[in-house]
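Workshop exercise sheet. Pairs work together: one partner reads the sequence aloud, the other fills in the structure field after running the prediction. Swap roles for the next sheet.
Pair: D.N. / O.F.
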Amino acid sequence: MKIRCACGATIHDGADALPNKAHVVADRDLFPYLERVDAAIEAQGDPERAVQAARRAWARAYGVGIRDLWAALPDR
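Structure field:
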């Protein structure tokens, strides 16, 4: 996977299942993000639309460079 940094650099990530591998989302931000996703899904009747809305909300909350990461995320 290649992730474009907000500074313009490309981060190459070709390794899986490494115990010391970092997460793209900081640990302190992960659970609030997952809670937002769950709340959005529960609040709307269409789960797919709710997931997309939650991703957009997270991208707005956490700023520049997220759009590139978001495009690389699988839909499910």
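Discussion prompt: Strands lie at 2-4, 10-12. What would you look at next?
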